[in-house]
Write a structure and sequence with these properties.
With 489 residues, the chain is of the alpha/beta class. The protein folds into two domains: 215 residues, 2-enoyl-CoA Hydratase, Chain A, domain 1; 172 residues, 2-enoyl-CoA Hydratase, Chain A, domain 1 (Alpha-Beta Complex), CATH 3.90.226. Helices cover 35% and strands 22% of the residues. It is built from 17 helices and 22 strands. The protein is globular. It comes from [Bacteroides] pectinophilus ATCC 43243.
Length: 489
């Protein structure tokens, strides 16, 4: 493995990866004397230090965490019985104490020499991850191999990082897929897993991964009952966002403009880019943000990629998962809505109904403070699914030029006045006339506000101060929902 220098730490060993992420001198190793107990296949003749995984605890920006790091120099980091039990021990302690778990993965898979002992112990990790889900944050960083059952472990984490050159994440290797091979399509690569499957939330060098993990941990609550300590704020709470309208096509830029000190942590940046998800702080409070995006701007402010203002199946899936996470950890949710409808493709039809249903349930079932800002078009049931008041948003703002309604006014006019238009001397003029009338009566923000669907029409530049005020007011929100074990689907 290539040696990459990072903050004076060599990223070549399991221990070095731990030191690069944790606060200096904070790591305390536990289970260092544990070793493999299998004697089959001459295993007793092999030294298996720490059974191939270093486990312990430390801190990130002063926040306590448990951490484990697989050692590829010991039997390729393969998971044996005791290796798995060490990880389970970490989870037991993390769940009891209510602190995050960070997993640093470089693993050849299950240790074949230990067969069912290893398999049973491996399954116990799945159970602990499942029990920890929604209770403590789980973060996985993949530096080398993460194949088979280990890929499932990574996907069960809340956030997955992949080293962009050497990390390989796969259930089946590229060469095991019919008609495929690595040189044709590397389905195990960080590029594929971040852009196509959406398993990888973040991709970067070992240096960047360590920095991103530290930043992310500082943003997240340590557990699901943490009251969320508010960070000190130096940014002006009444700061005007003068450029936000021009930034809005690339919602990542708009969210950074709204955020304290311009900091936005984007999650799944490379997947389903027509929706942006991530974390900002407003007046020191962590907020989960979801926004429709119609462009990705390059460093020169030019649109490098463009998207229609529609909700795609992948985007709905991405947003639903993010909102569910925020609700589990009591993180308030902000949405910036600009959507005209749903993506209309054969491929999309395979999954869009179920994925939009998941998004709708995620918003409708969330009990955290929820604020929606309609920044462009908000049309039809795609708008309803995007954190509308109808699904329980606590406050809805709208920019003056936004539109809220069933469908585009010209299309509505063509349907409603089809007979008149077909007989008109100037059909286009009649369509324009009827569309303007429809806009005034049905799709303007003033019309929506008159019906109580919009709480306030605000100037775009004032968005930050309105959002800060809204989330401060909602901080004490206490909402109950009908008792149930969990959703049935």
């Amino acid at each position: 493995m290539e040696v990459i220098m990072m903050s004076n730490q060599t990223q070549g060993s399991a221990r070095d990866r731990i030191d690069a992420i944790l606060d200096e001198n904070s790591f305390v190793e536990i289970g260092a004397m544990v070793t493999a107990r299998s004697t089959d296949f001459n295993m007793s003749d092999n030294a298996v230090p720490s059974d191939g995984v270093i486990t312990g605890y430390g801190s990130v920006e002063g926040i306590p965490v448990y951490i484990y790091s697989q050692d590829a120099s010991v039997m390729n980091g393969s998971v044996g019985e005791m290796h798995a039990k060490k990880i389970v021990n970490i989870y037991d302690k993390a769940i009891k104490t209510g602190v995050p778990v960070i997993a640093l993965v470089d693993c050849a898979g299950l240790r074949l020499q230990e067969s069912t002992d290893a398999l049973n112990a491996f399954g116990s990790i799945y159970r602990k991850q499942s029990l920890a889900s929604g209770v403590i944050p789980q973060i996985t960083a993949v530096y080398g191999n993460c194949g088979g059952g280990m890929a499932v472990m990574a996907a069960m984490s809340d956030f997955t990082f992949m080293e962009k050159e050497n990390a390989k994440l796969f259930v089946n290797s590229p060469n095991a897929l019919d008609g495929n091979y690595t040189a044709k399509l590397d389905t195990a690569s960080a590029k594929f897993q971040s852009e196509e499957s959406g398993v990888a939330d973040f991709v970067g060098t070992a240096d960047e991964i360590a920095e991103q993990i530290r930043t992310l941990v500082a943003f997240l609550p340590v557990n699901n009952v943490d009251d969320g300590a508010v960070a000190d704020v130096t940014d002006n709470l009444n700061r005007v966002c003068a450029d936000i309208e021009s930034e809005m096509p690339d919602a990542a830029l708009a969210l950074a403009d709204i955020a304290d000190d311009g900091m936005f942590i984007e999650v799944k940046k490379n997947y389903a880019k027509s929706v942006v998800t991530g974390f900002i702080k407003l007046d020191g409070m962590t907020i989960g943000a979801v926004a429709n995006r119609t462009a990705v701007f390059d460093e020169n402010g030019k649109a490098a990629e463009k998207f229609d203002a529609v909700l795609t199946s992948r985007a709905a899936k991405k947003a639903a998962s993010f909102v569910t996470y925020c609700d589990a950890f009591d993180i308030p949710v902000l949405t910036l809505t600009n959507v005209k409808g749903f993506s209309a493709t054969v491929c999309s039809e395979k999954s869009i109904a179920s994925n939009v249903a998941a998004l709708t349930k995620a918003f409708a079932g969330a009990t955290v403070p929820r604020v929606n800002v309609v920044v462009g078009d908000a049309m039809g049931s795609a708008y309803v699914a995007m954190n509308s008041k109808a699904t329980g948003a606590d406050i809805e703002f709208a920019w003056p030029q936004a539109s809220i309604g069933m469908m585009d006014s010209k299309l509505a006019a063509k349907i409603m006045y089809a007979d008149e238009i077909s007989k008109a001397a100037d059909p286009n003029a009649l369509i324009a006339e009827k569309a303007a009338e429809y806009d005034k009566l049905q799709t303007s923000v003033q019309s929506a506000a008159a019906r109580g669907y919009v709480d306030a029409v605000i100037e775009p530049a004032d968005t930050r101060k309105y959002l800060i005020s809204a989330f401060e007011m909602l901080a004490s929100k206490d909402e109950t929902v009908p008792y149930k074990k969990h959703s049935s689907k």
